[in-house]
Amino acid sequence: MLSAILWTPLAFGLISLLAPRRFAPWVAGTGTLITLVLAAIVAIGFDSSQGLQYVVDVTWIPGLGINYSLGIDGISVFLVLLTALAWVPAVAFTASRGTDRAGLFYFMLLAGQTATLGAFLAQDLLLFVLFFDLMIVPFYFLFGIWGSDREGVTAGSATVKMIVFTLIGSLLMLVGAVAVGVIAADGGQLTFNMAELAEKGLPSGSQNWIFWFFAAAFLVKMPAFPLHGWMPDAYRAAPLPALAVFSAVLSKVGAYGFLKVVLPIMPDAVELFQTTMLIIALGSIIYGSVMAFTKIDLRLILGFSSVAQLGFITLGIFALDSTGANGALLQMINHGLVVVPAFLIVALIAERTGSEDIGPMGGLAKKAPVFAVIFLIVTMGTLAIPGSANFIGEFYILNGVFNTDVAIAIIASSGVALAAFYALRMYQRTMHNPLPEGSDSREISVRDGLMIVPIVLIMIVLAFCPQIILGDTRDSVDATVAVSKEAAQ
Amino acid sequence: MNAASWGWLVLLFPLLGSIFIGLTFRRIPPKAAGLVGIAAIAAAFICGIAAVISLQGEPAESRHVADSLWTYASVGGLSIDLGIYVDPLSAFMVLVVTGVSSLIHIYSYSYMKSDAGYHRFFSYLNFFVFSMLLLVLAGNFVLLVVGWAFVGFASYALISYWYRREAATRAGMKAFVINVVGDIGLVLAAILIFRELGVIDYGAVFEKAPEVFTTTNEWTAVAICLLLLVGAFAKSAQMPFHTWLADAMEGPTPVSSLIHAATMVTAGVYLVARAHPLFELAPAAADVAAIVGLVTLLVAGTIAIVVTDLKRIIAYSTMSQIGYMFVAVGIGAYSAGMFHLMTHAFFKALLFMAAGSVIAAMANIQNIDRMKGFYKAMPFTAAMLIIGALALSGFPGTSGWFSKDEIIDFAAFRGGWYEIFAIGGYIGAFMTAIYSFRIIFRILPGPPCEEAAHLIETGHVVHGEPVNPATGEKEDIEVGYPGEDHHIAEQAMGMKIGMSVLGFLALVGGLVQIPGVTEVITHFLEPTFEDSPLAAMHPTVAEAWKGLAKGAVISVVGIAFTWWLYIGRPSVPETLRRTFSPIYTLFINKWYGDEIIDFLIVKPVKGFGRFANNWFERYAIGGLTNGTIAIVRSASGAVRDLQTGMLRGYALLMAVGTVAILLYFLIRGL
Lengths: 489, 670
Hints:
The complex is a heterodimer of chains A (489) and B (670).
Chain A: H1 2-18, H2 24-45, E1 53-61, E2 66-72, H3 77-97, H4 102-121, H5 125-146, H6 155-185, H7 194-200, H8 204-221, H9 231-237, H10 240-265, H11 267-272, H12 274-294, H13 298-318, H14 322-353, H15 369-382, H16 389-404, H17 406-431, H18 446-464, H19 467-488
Antiparallel strand pairs in A: 1-2
Helix pairs in contact in A: 1-2, 1-4, 2-3, 2-4, 3-4, 3-10, 3-14, 3-18, 4-5, 4-10, 5-6, 5-10, 6-8, 6-9, 8-10, 9-13, 10-13, 10-14, 10-19, 12-13, 12-17, 13-14, 13-16, 13-17, 14-15, 14-16, 14-18, 14-19, 15-17, 15-18, 16-17
Chain B: H1 3-23, H2 30-56, E1 65-75, E2 78-86, H3 88-111, H4 118-137, H5 141-159, H6 166-197, H7 202-212, H8 219-235, H9 243-247, H10 253-262, H11 267-274, H12 276-281, H13 283-306, H14 310-331, H15 334-361, H16 374-377, H17 379-392, H18 399-414, H19 419-443, H20 450-458, H21 493-508, H22 520-525, H23 533-536, H24 541-568, H25 572-579, H26 581-588, H27 593-635, H28 637-640, H29 645-669
Antiparallel strand pairs in B: 1-2
Helix pairs in contact in B: 1-2, 1-4, 2-3, 2-4, 3-4, 3-10, 3-15, 3-21, 4-5, 5-6, 6-8, 8-11, 8-13, 10-15, 11-14, 13-14, 13-19, 14-15, 14-18, 14-19, 15-17, 15-18, 15-21, 17-19, 17-21, 18-19, 18-24, 19-24
C-alpha cells in the first residue's frame, strides 16, 4: 500500500512525460488524485494505538544493511496526507494556466512528490537520506527552467545558490547517517533501520558531532536563521505552483527529520544542545517576522513568515515536552495548509495587478468579496488567530517552551504580535485601501475557487476540532519525546 | 432545557445569522439581510432571558452550569473542552450584550441604508455579537482567548469597513495589533494557570486556586493576574493600551456605538469580575487594576474636555467611564462595576446613535465647532442627546447617577488609602459633567449652521459630494459609501426606535438598583460573588444616600458651570485656553500617548527591521551565502575543466563526493 502511494506520482509523471502534450496535465492530475485517495485510505485506516503500521521491509543492499523499508506512524501520517493533498492544486493550477514543456514540468513536479513522500515514509535511515537528497533535484530544474529572472538575479544563479546550500547540508547528513550506522554496528552487522538504531544507541561523544551534521541539513531545508540565505532568491525565481508545494511541504521535512531521526537516535546530544537549538529557533521567529514586515514582495513576505513559523515549530520540538512537540507537529500541518492557498492567491493577485509588490497595490476586494474573504481566512490562519487550529499549535508550543524556559517563551510570544502585523499588512495592502488605476478587481473564478476553497474548508474544520489530528499523533510524538526525556534524567 | 442549553442557543443564532448573510449576499435583498441580522440577535436575547429564568429556578448555591460539546484539543495532560459556563455573571452579560445589540442592529438597519456593503456590514455585526457572547460564555481560559480574539477581529473588520479610506484601514490595523498584544497576555496567563493549577476550566481553577496559593500575593498568582490585566487593558482601552480607541472612530457610527461603547470595550471589566477569585488572592494586582482605572478615567476626562471631534469626545468619555468600572472591580465593588457597565451601555450607545444622527445631517463633518442650532433642526435627536448627557454626567434620578455613585461610595466605604478612588471619582464626575454638556451647549442652541438650516428649510439633509471628511478627497462610492438615501438623519424609523428605547433605559435604568429599595442587580449577581469577602461588604443605606447626594451636587454644579462657560460667558473658554496654554497643548495632544508608544515600541521595531533588511541580511547573511558558494565554486574548479557547464560540474562534485565518503566509511567499517 505504501509502495503504491510512493511510486504512483513518479509513474504518472513518467507517463505524462511520454504522453502527447495535451494529455500531460490530465495524466498528472489523475496521478495526484489517486495518490490523495490512497493516502486518505491509509490515514483513515490508521490506528493511533499501534506504533508503526503498513510496514514494508525488503532487503535492498544486504552487504551494507540497507533495506527498502517503509512504514507510517503518528508523526508521518498527516504529513503524508498533506503531501498528497498539496500537489493536487499545484498540478491543477499549472494545468489551468498551461506551461511550456508541460510533460517535463509535470514529470519533475511528480518526481518531487515521490521523493517527498519517500522521505516521510522511509524507515531506513539511508533510504531517508536518499529521498531527502533526491527531493531537491526536481525542484532545482523546476525553479531553474520554469522560473523567472528578477532584478539582480537570474533564475539560474538563484537555483545554484539553493542547490549548493542544500547539497552541503545533504552531504553532511549522508556522512552523519553512514557514521550512525557504522558506529552503532560497532563492528557487528550493519543496519540502518531507524527503530533498531534508536534502540542500540550511540556513544554520546559521537552523538555530539553527528547531531550537527543532521541539524545542518534540516536547518538549511527549513530554512532557519541564519542559514536562510538561499531562500529569498530562490523564492523570487520559482514558478508559484511549484513554490507552493515546496514551501508547504519540503520545509516540513527538515522539522520532521528532527522529530523522527534526531530525537530518538541522538537523545544525549539533543539534551546537550537543547538551549542552542531553542535560541536558533527564537532567532528564526524574531528575524523572520521582522524581515517579513520590511518586505514588499508578496513571495518574500510569505517566505520570511515561513522562517518564523518554522522557528515556532523547531521551538516546540526542542522544548522536549509532550505539549510542545505535539503542538509543533500540528503546526507543521497547519502551516502547510495555509501556505498552499497563500501562494496560489499570490498568483491570482499577480494576474489581477501585474505585480507581486504590495507597494502600488490596493482595493482588490472591491469587486471581489469572495476572493477577499478567502484571503482573509488564509491571513487569519497565517497569524494564528485564536480559534484557528494554528492557534492551538502555537498555544501548545508556547506551553511546552514555558515549561522548559520561561524567558524564551515570553520572547517568542512577541513573534505572535509581529505575525499579526505582517500578515494583516499583506492583506490590507492588497485587498483594502483605494484601488489604483490599472488594477483589475475581478472575482475569483469557480475553477480557481475549486483549487483553493477545499483546503480553506479543511482549515475551518480543523479550527473546530484540532483534536482530529492531535488524537492520532499524540502517542507517537509522546514516545519520541519520552526518549529524550529519559536521556535528560 | 437547562441554562447551558439555552447558552448554546444564544451562541448559535448570531453565528448562523452571520454565516447565512455572508453566504447569500448575492441572493437576498439588503432589507432581508438586515432583518435576518436583527432576528438572529433578538432570538439570542430571548434565549438569554430563558437562560436567566432557568438559572433563577435553581437554588442560589447551584446557580452555575458548565457544559461542553467535545474535546477541543488534548495532549500532554492539557485538555481543552469546547465548553461554556453559565452563571448569573455571564447571563447578565448576555442580556446586556444581546439587548443593546438588538437595538443597535435596528438602528443600523436604517442608518446603513443604501450602503453598498450592507450585507457585509450585517454579517460582520452578527459575527461580532457571536464573538462577544463566546467571550462571556466561554467555560475555560483557552476558549476565553478565542472569544477575545474573535472580538478583536470583528472590531478590526468593522473599523476598516469603509476600507477605501486609508485612515480607516490604518485604524483597523492599530486596533488589531494592540488587541493581539492583549491576547498574548491572556495566552501566557492561561499557560501559567495550567502550570500552577493543572486545570483550565473556570470552575476547577477557582476551586483550586485558594488551595494552591495559600498566602496572599504569591508572585505566581500576581503574575497570572497582571497578565490577565494586559489582556483586559488592551481590550478596554485603558492606559497604556488606549490609543487605538479614538482612531477606531473611523468605523461607521453604529459600530462605535456597539463595539466601542456598549460591549467590546467592557470585556476587560467582565474579565476581572469573572476572575475575581484569583484577584482576591493577589490583591496587589487588583490594586493595579484600580489605579490604572483611576489614571485612565482622569486622563481621558481631560482629553474629552478639549478635543473637538464629536465622536472622539464620546470615545474619550468611554475610556473614562471604563476607568470607573476598573476602579470598581479593582476595589471589590463587583456588582457596582457591572451595574455601571450596564447603564453605561445604555447611555453611551444612545449618545453615539444621536451623534451619528447629527453627523449624518452634517454630511459627515464631525467637528463640533462647525455645528450649531440642532435643537431646532432635529428636536428628537436633541432630546436624546440631552438624555444621554444627563445620564452620563450623573444627573439626579438618571441611571448614571445611581451607578457611578455606587462605585464612589464603595471606595469611600473601604476607607484607608482607597479614599483616593473616591476623590478621583468625584473629580472625574465633575469633568464628565463638563465634557458632556460642552457637546450639548455647543451644538444644540444658537443660530442654525448651514447644514442645520438646510434641514429646517427643506426637511432633507445636505447631499454633499462624497468626500472623505478628513482629507477632502473624493470617495470611491462603490466601496460601501452611504448612498444619497443614507442622509436620512433622525427621520428613519429604525433609528428612532433604537434611540427611544435606549433613551428610556438611560433615564430609568437606574431604578433597578436604588439603595435600600430595589437592589436587583446585587441580588441577581450574589451567587457569582458569594465566595468573595469584599462583595459581602456594603455601605449602609444611609451612607449610600449620602454619597448619592454628593454626586447630585457635583453633577448639577458641573452642568451649571459648563452653562456659564459656553452660554453665559462664551469668551471664557478661549481665555482659559490661552492662559493655560501648556496644559491645553498637553490635553489636545492626548498627553502624547501615540508619540510615546511610537518612540518606545514602533520606532525601535521598525529600526530593527531596517537594520535587518538593509544591513544584516545584505552583508552578514549575504556574505555567508555568497562566501559558501565561492568556496564551493573554487573547489569545483578542477571538475569544471571538463567545461560541461556549471550544473553538471556540481552534479559530478556531488556524485564523486558521495562515493568517496561512502567508500571511506565502508573501508573503515569492514
